[in-house]
Amino acid sequence: MVRSMKKKVTNPSYCVSTAVSDAVLAASCLYGITSPIGILAKIWFALTMLAASFGVFRFGKKSVPKWLEVSHQTASKFAGPIGLPCILAQYYLYIFNKAELGTGMLMVAFVPALTLLSSNATLQNIIGTLVTVSSVLLLAVESYLNQNSSSLVAVAMFILALPFDRPSKIIGLVPGYDIFHYFRPSKIIGLVPGYDIFHYLLTVANWFLIAGLQK
Question: Within the chain, how many helices (H) and strands (E) appear?
Answer without folding.
Answer: 7, 2
